Structures are given as structure tokens and as C-alpha cells.
Amino acid sequence: MNVNARLTTLLHALRCPVCAGEALAFEGEFEGVRRTGTLSCRQCSARYPLQDGIADFLPTGHPALTLAQLTGQWKLTATVYERLWRTRALSLLSGEAFPPAREIGLLLDALEPTFAEDGLWLDAACSTGYYGRPIAKRLLEQGRTASLVIGIDLSLAMLEEARAYANREGVAEAMLWLRADMSALPLAEATVRGIACGGSLNEYRDALAVLKEGRRVLQPEVGRYFVMNQLDPPLIVRAALSSMGGLTFFTRPRLDALFEAAGLHKVTAADYGKLAITVLKA
Ligand SMILES: C[S@@+](CC[C@H](N)C(=O)[O-])C[C@H]1O[C@@H](n2cnc3c(N)ncnc32)[C@H](O)[C@@H]1O
Ligand SMILES: [Zn+2]
């Protein structure tokens, strides 16, 4: 019964990426963490497979990838990413002790107002679901039986890794994964209570388009958008990284201008060395 409530929340929010129709139907099994079937659009009859908790909204392939995005498609990257890099990244970027518990504490504090009711949360370009999992844990602890955290990424390997982590941590029931493009979200307007984006702003091909999409799906007033990203590295490093890998870096003024251009309003902003944490609302 709880599970159906989560499915209902999902179906209320989904929007067909082909025709923008907002009536998607589900056929199949959606029980506990056993979730396999087909989502189909009643308007244009496009179909999106759901396999063991991962729905594919890019069934005919993904958009052209930058090198950084391409490496994320590899199984090896997905396997070592969190253990070798993610848990140390913030200490390296900030130049101070920034253990995972401090980062996740900031994330959950920022999203606090969004937990007052059931709904949908988004782990944007989630990789292994580093932000989505603690949000799901929080929702489960609060007994939010109609809530769901959606992890979105272009990389199936990353989504599979995210699902494995979530299963091990016992939070998969409150999560679902979508293979989709953050710059063309399969979600309707004002359907998301909270968005968490760790690191990916530097990796998107079109960061402004992604932020505008976030603004479109975020609920006005109560909705919160938590963004953690890397600020401009020294010029020489930046030139090498962006020419090789398709990464983009922002100074704080450029970052603020980007948020404003997307129609997002700053709630709080704090920079620690090269690490920027910004909380926004629609
Ligand atoms: C830096 S990692 C994300 C890290 C993760 N959010 C975290 O906090 O650990 C970047 C991820 O963004 C994904 N990505 C890049 N561009 C994307 C897009 N347009 N839509 C969805 N995912 C994207 C890549 O596949 C990769 O897994
Ligand atoms: Zn459609």
C-alpha cells in the first residue's frame, strides 16, 4: 500500500519527454524494491521501460557526450568514483577538514523546510546517489510513505551503482532512478520539493538550461535547490580541463549571474576555498 502511494506520487509528476503530455500510465510490478514494467504516454503512446527500479527515458540513446560525461558511462568509473574520490573531494577543494558528515549535514539542513510534507526530491546528475541516499533515509525515518527520491543520470552504469548502494543501505524503497537528461527533464512544472546537485554543474554541457529546468520543476516558495560545485581553478588548470574534458568552471560572480539568469533566488551561499555551496529557491 505504501508502495502504491510512492507510485502515485511519481505518476503525478512525470511528463512525457516526447510530447510533454502529463498523463503517463504504468503497467507492471511496483512492490517493495521490485519495480519492473513499462511507463507509457497516453497522449503519444511513447513507452519507457522500467527495469529493477531504473526507468529509461533515453531508450533511443543519449545526447552527444563530453569526455567527462563519457567517462561517467564506464563501469570502472562508477565503481571507484565514490570510494576513491567523492568522500575526499570536499576536503581537497576547500583546503579544510570537510568529512562526508559535514557535507550531508549542510544538505539536510538546507532541505529541512521541504520535509514537512510528502512529495518528490531529485538527486540531479546523481552518479552513485551520494545526496539522494541520505535524503531517502531521512524520509524513511520520518515515515513519509508517499515520498520518493529520484536519481537522474545519463549513465546507466552510475545508476546501477547508485541502486546497489541504496539496496545495501536499506533506502532503495524510497528511491527510483531515471536515465534522463537534466536539461530536458521528464517532469511537470512545480512537482519537486527539493533538488540536490553535487558537483555536476561543472560537467553539464549547458548549465543554464539545466538550472532553468530545475526552476521549472521546483515548487515555488517551499522548494529548495542545493548546489555544491567547484569554483574557478587557476587559469592553466582550467584551460587544460575544459579543453580536454568539457568541464566548465565558474567564479562566484559568474555563478550568481547564472542562477539569476535561470530565475532562481539565493537563500544562502557559502564558499570554502574552491568549494561553493549555494541554496536556492524558485
Ligand atoms: C560530477 S558527477 C556527479 C556527482 C554526484 N552528483 C555526487 O554528488 O557525487 C557528474 C555526473 O553527471 C552526469 N551528467 C552529466 N551531464 C548530465 C546531464 N545533462 N544529465 C544527466 N546527467 C548528467 C554524469 O553522467 C556523471 O555521472
Ligand atoms: Zn507523449
Concise summary:
With 282 residues, the chain is α/β, with parallel strands linked by helices.
Total separate domains: 1
Q: Could you tell me the strand content as a percent range? A: 15-25%
N-to-C order of helices and strands: HEEEEHHHEHEHEEHEHHEE
β-strand number: 11
The main β sheet shows up as:
11 strands, mixed
CATH homologous superfamily placement:
Vaccinia Virus protein VP39
Please mark out the parts with pLDDT under 50 across 5 or more consecutive residues, or reply none: none
Mean pLDDT: 91
Overall 3D geometry? globular
Structural class: alpha/beta
| CATH class value | Alpha Beta
Bound molecules: S-adenosylmethionine, zinc ion
Task: Explain what you see.
The chain has 282 residues and is an alpha/beta fold. The chain has a single domain, classed as 3-Layer(aba) Sandwich (Rossmann fold), CATH 3.40.50. It has nine helices and eleven strands. Strands 1-2-3-4-7-6-5-8-9-11-10 form an eleven-stranded mixed β-sheet, sandwiched between helices. Strand 3 and strand 4 form a beta hairpin. The longest helix is centred in the N-terminal third of the chain and has 20 residues, at 75-94. The chain is globular, with a radius of gyration of 18 Å. The protein starts with a helix and ends with a strand. Bound molecules: S-adenosylmethionine and zinc ion (ZN).
